[in-house]
Amino acid sequence: MTKERAIVLLSGGLDSATAAAWGLANGFELFALTIDYNQRHRCELDAARRVGEFLRVSRHVFLDVNLAAFGGSSLTSNDFEVRHDVPLEAIGREIPNTYVPARNTVFLSLALAFAETVGTPTNSSAAEHIILGINAADYSGYPDCRPEYLGAFANMARLATKAGVEGTMQLHFHAPLMTLGKREIIELGLSLGVDFSLTHTCYSPTADGKSCGRCESCLLRLNGFREAGVVDPIVYA
């Protein structure tokens, strides 16, 4: 039986790796999309490649979309510094400067285009599913990680695509981590066999790729592993 196809947005972080593993466990054939948006933490691209190989995705597309041309974020511009040592209880109270303007809208639009065209000459079946790893730990601070955002994008996608208008495919967006915190995501990933040593989360790694342990992303990750009672397998500076 032919598996249903799914596009998974794969960043190389623990969230997207877990979401991708969830897709495999639910019987999808995975086509991974990783965006090189000229981010400062570029070792996540290597992590995405490692994760894609580990999960044996059917195809892995790396796409160049230079969002650094616009700037406006500490992840794409040297005009801002990534915040360090923020108290855990303060993370998510405001939109952080690591927010990249319209990033998820750009990424989901590209995933949508991939979904419409993923068929091959021998198998015209498109991908009717898009999987992404947005979650509760992020949507408290990032507006494009919220459930209402994803619902609105899904409605737009059904109106904005040839396949959606003609009814040749029914698009489904899956955010299996949406209501989970980092501890729950880590526990789910471990239950699905994710090798978290392959992932990268840090926003400001050292020149040799070690995670800083001090940015908000590292702090949330470390706390998640601590709460899960598991040692984080990656190397920190």
Tell me the strand percentage band: 5-15%
Residue-averaged pLDDT, rounded?
89
Q: What share of residues is helical?
A: 25-40%
Query: From the 3D coordinates, which CATH architecture would you assign?
Result: 3-Layer(aba) Sandwich
> Quick one: CATH superfamily?
HUPs
Q: Can you write the helix and strand succession as a string?
A: EHEHEHEHHHEHH
Gross morphology is globular
Radius of gyration: 17 Å
Could you write a compact summary of the structure shown?
This protein is 36% helix and 11% strand. By secondary structure, it is an alpha/beta fold.
Q: Which structural traits does this protein have?
A:
Rossmann fold
Question: Would you write up a description of this structure?
Answer:
This protein is of the alpha/beta class. It has a single domain (5-228), classed as Rossmann fold. It is 36% helix and 11% strand. It has helices spanning 14-25, 43-55, 103-117, 136-139, 147-160, 162-166, 182-191, 216-228, and strands at residues 5-9, 29-36, 59-64, 129-131, 172-174. It has a five-stranded parallel β-sheet, with helices on both faces. Helix 1 links the parallel strand 1 and strand 2 (29-36). The longest helix has 15 residues, at 103-117. The protein is globular and about 50 Å long. The mean pLDDT is 89.
Write the layout of secondary structure elements.
Layout: E1 5-9, H1 14-25, E2 29-36, H2 43-55, E3 59-64, H3 103-117, E4 129-131, H4 136-139, H5 147-160, H6 162-166, E5 172-174, H7 182-191, H8 216-228
Parallel strand pairs: 1-2, 1-4, 2-3, 4-5
Helix pairs in contact: 1-2, 1-7, 7-8
